[in-house]
Each structure stands twice: as C-alpha cells, then as structure tokens.
Amino acid sequence: MSERRPYVRPMPRDWWAHRPFRHYTIRELSGVTIAIYAAVLLSGLVALLRGPEAWDAWRGWLASPASLVLHGALLIAMLWHVRTWFQILPKTMPKLILGGTPVPQRTITLVGTSVAVICSSALVAFVLWRPF
Amino acid sequence: MPHAPEKRSNAPVFWLLFGAGGTLSALFGVGLILVTGFLAPQGIGISADALSYENALAFTQNGLGKAVIWAVISLFFWHAAERFYLTLKDMHVFSDTGRRLLTYGVAAVVTVATAGLLLAIGFNQTM
Fold first, then answer.
1. Which of residues 46-85 of B touch A (CB under 8 A)?
2. GO terms for CC (chain A) (predicted)?
3. A100: CATH
4. Which CATH class is domain B13-121?
5. pLDDT by residue for chain A (132 residues), tens digit each?
6. CA A123, CA A35: separation in Å to the nearest integer?
C-alpha cells in the first residue's frame, strides 16, 4: 500500500515579514494610520460636545508642533496608501476591455491616481476659496 | 414542503463599508489631512477664525455637515479595520474572535459613538 506524500512547500509563520511580502505588509499597516486620523477628528467631536473651553484646548493642540509632526506622518502614510491602492486596483478588478482591447494596468493606475489628485485638490481649493 | 429561506451571507454589507471607506480615503484623504491638519489650524489661506467654536458648532449642527463627519470618521475606521484584520490574520496573532473584536468591533463602536455624539450636539434651530 502506497502512502500519498504530496510536497508541501514550507511556509514560515513570519512570511509576512520577509521579501517580497514585506512591502505588502507595510502597505497594509499604513491603513491603520487612517483610523488614527479619524480618531483625531473624533476627539475634536468630543471636545465640541464638551463646550467652548474644551474645543479651544483641542484647537490649540491641533496647532501645536506635536500635532504638526503627527499630521506630517499621517500625510506621508496616506499618500503612500493612496498610491499603492491604485497600483493594486487593476489587479483586483475585473479585466476592463474597451473597444475590443484590454486596458493596460498602467492606464487604470494612472487614471485612478489622477482622479484622486483632482478630488483632493478640489477639496483644498473649495476650502481655500470659500468665503468664511 | 416549503423551502426554508436561503441563508444569506452578511459579507456584502461589510464589503460595502470597506469599499466605501477605501474609496473615500483614496479620493479625499490627502485633501482632508491637508485641510484639518495644516491649513485650518495654522491659518494658511483660511482665516484663523474658521475653526472657532461657533463655526465648528454651526458646521456640525448642519445636516450635511453631520453626514460628512459621520461618513469620514466611521468609514475611515471600517477601511483601517479591514486592512488591519487581514494583516493580523497573516501574522497569526490573537484568536479570530479577538482579531474581529479588535478591528471590526472597534469600527462598529466608533460608528455608533460618532452618531451618538452628532445627535447629542444637536441640530441648528434656525435652519
């Protein structure tokens, strides 16, 4: 009687910490910074509910160097998260065929990234040119 | 014999939250951080008065303002929760229930808490 002994490719438990997967792991963890940013906004909402003094304290912290450093880090993480999001997009969506030819992945990434740049720029422009 | 109703998966509801959060952060995340992290608190291109208590309260008491705040905070948490849950799964840390509580559980609590805060702040009576 023969025993079936298929080859099982060894997979170390910490595969996610090594190349080529490390890049993907760091990319995924950059998503956590998006929750940190949302938590900053949530703390502002709590301050707003507590009243003018709590709100001004929160505002004061938001203008502090510590907040600037935090938001600088959040901005870098967000930029990278968005860039990689649109690099992954053509790999996860169904193949897009226009006029009988498949649209290259590069084009989808470029169009997606461009739409993101336009949306974020439009938001900043709206805030800057809105009469307060 | 009548058929028992087909058991439907609740996964698509969560995919909607993840997809909406991912798309919202991808399209507007950078702009939002620039506005709330740099331009408004530093008064760059915006009057320093823009973040006054009165203005913040007026924005938050507006129905549209409430919708924007609720969507941004809760959907950003759902997006981060999905990315973090899958990474924790890859890393084999915690039990699956623990991972779900830490990620989706937190996002669910934040979603409800944000709605509660927005309701507690109330609506503008003059509108």
1. 46-47, 49-51, 53, 55-57, 60, 69, 72-74, 76-77, 79-84
2. membrane
3. 1.20.1300.10
4. mainly alpha
5. 678 889 988 888 888 888 888 999 999 999 999 999 999 999 999 999 999 999 999 999 999 999 999 999 999 999 999 999 999 999 888 888 888 888 888 999 999 999 999 999 999 999 888 755
6. 20
